[in-house]
Structure formats: structure tokens, C-alpha cells
Write a structure and sequence with these properties.
Length: 261
């Protein structure tokens, strides 16, 4: 569970992942490797039904890439493809993790940090958070899915403005744009994310897994094809023990006792 820069713990049914790469929790190849290893361990762990992802300290969720590593890549590498593949492998795995993932954005979420948050399902931000993609100021642009996930979330026009200017959004602007789900007072981000995680962990796990798959697969398809994916996955949900229990408990006017299968 503990790595050099990433560690995770299990609190009941909730996995808590912390990026701890001081002072600003920047993204490096090593951090990406440790994140991927943590996500795989969580996926294999018993009874992890929700994940919360955050950065250590109060300054940054993740304040971009390791610039020294980028400089070394520019100086010595003929291609950036091995580097970006490592990032994509990590963030794609997170996006498709079969449990809800909540980003607790406790400060700066810039560049690769915003891209990491975009791969989560829900984003809760501190009122002091700044979210942006400043890579254009270095003559670059996001390479861990930001050019693809950002416009899908907030629309192409605002995403392009952020990508073209490199200027960040405040927490309030991020909330208005739909970039984050909720803004809370600074210092309350993790507790708010954990509260939301406990609520999700109380929901039937198979339904959460299947509805996440329905959204993730369907959003990439034409509407009619997406609806077919929805129908197939709902058919699977209907055949779970939890669906039978949920419907029966409603008819009997009692609280459902889900077994998460």
C-alpha cells in the first residue's frame, strides 16, 4: 500500500489515496506508476466500494507535471510517446475503475493534476482551489487526456479558452462551469469527500458499477447505441440480489438490506 510518493489506506468500504510528493505533489513518471499500482490494488481488494483521491498538505491536489522531468525528456528523448502512454494507462485505468472515484481537490489542480481529477467521477473542491491547464505557456498542451476529457465535461468552447490561454478557473468559476460538483470551505474538502463516499458506499455496489459502465461506454457512442448499452447493463442489474431486495423492501415499506451482489 505505501509507496514513495503515493499511499492508500482502506477505511471500511472506502479506499483513500494520497499523493505525497512535496511541496506541490507534482506528477512524475514515478508518481504515475505508483498511482496505477494503487488503483490496481484497490480494484483487487475486498469490499472497497468507493475511492477518495487527494493530495497531501493544504496547498495542492497536484500542481502539474514535474518540469525537470519534462526538460530531460525534451533534451534526451526522440519521442514523448512512452511518457504519455504511461500517463494514459494510469488515468484511463482510473476512469474505468469499477467503483466511484471522488477527487478531493484541496488546492491547486493544474496541468496533470486537473487531468487526474478529470478522470475521477466526482470532484469536490476547496474554495481556494485553482483549476487549469497552463501547458500552453510552456509551448505545450495537456498530454494525459486533458484535451479530450475537459471538453466532454464543460463543452468545447470553454475548454478551448482554458487550453488556449492557460489561465485557471477559481473554485466558484469551476462550479458554475460544471468542472467541479461542489465547493466547500478550505480545510473541509476531505471530510466532504469522505461524507459523499460513505453515502455512495451505502448504495448497492453492483448498481453503481453497472451505471458507471453505462455512462462511460455510452458517452462515446451515438445515442441509439448508448441506449442499447444501457439496456444490456440494466438487464444485468435486474438479475442481481440487490435489485430483488430493493424492489421487495420498497413494496414492504422497509429499509433495504443490500448485500452488494
Amino acid at each position: 500500500m505505501p509507496g514513495e510518493f503515493v499511499n492508500w489506506t482502506q477505511e471500511g468500504n472506502i479506499a483513500v489515496v494520497v499523493v505525497d510528493n512535496p511541496p506541490m505533489n507534482v506528477l512524475s513518471s514515478k508518481v504515475a506508476e505508483e498511482l496505477l499500482a494503487s488503483f490496481k490494488e484497490i480494484n483487487a481488494a475486498e469490499n472497497c466500494r468507493v475511492m477518495v483521491l487527494t493530495g497531501a498538505g493544504e496547498k495542492a491536489f497536484m500542481a502539474g507535471a514535474d518540469i525537470n522531468e519534462l526538460a530531460e525528456i525534451i533534451r534526451t528523448s526522440a519521442s514523448t510517446l512512452p511518457y504519455t502512454k504511461k500517463l494514459h494507462d494510469t488515468f484511463n485505468y482510473l476512469e474505468n475503475l469499477p467503483i466511484p472515484a471522488i477527487a478531493a481537490i484541496n488546492g491547486y489542480a493544474l496541468g496533470g493534476g486537473l487531468e487526474l481529477a478529470l478522470a475521477c467521477d466526482i470532484r469536490i473542491a476547496s474554495e481556494k482551489a485553482l483549476l487549469g491547464v497552463p501547458e500552453v505557456k510552456l509551448g505545450l498542451f495537456p498530454g494525459a487526456g486533458g484535451t479530450q476529457r475537459l471538453p466532454r465535461l464543460i463543452g468545447a468552447s470553454l475548454a478551448k479558452e482554458m487550453l488556449f490561454t492557460g489561465e485557471p478557473l477559481t473554485a466558484a468559476e469551476s462550479l458554475r462551469s460544471g468542472l467541479v460538483n461542489k465547493v466547500v470551505p478550505h480545510g473541509e474538502v476531505f471530510s466532504a469527500a469522505r461524507e459523499r463516499a460513505h453515502l455512495l458506499a451505502s448504495r448497492p455496489a453492483m448498481a453503481l458499477k453497472l451505471v458507471k459502465e453505462a455512462v462511460n461506454r455510452g458517452i462515446k457512442l451515438p445515442l441509439e447505441e448508448g441506449c442499447r448499452v444501457e439496456s444490456d447493463l440494466l438487464d444485468r442489474a435486474f438479475r442481481t440480489e440487490d435489485a430483488r431486495e430493493g424492489v421487495q423492501s420498497f413494496l414492504e415499506k422497509r429499509e433495504a438490506k443490500f448485500k452488494h451482489r
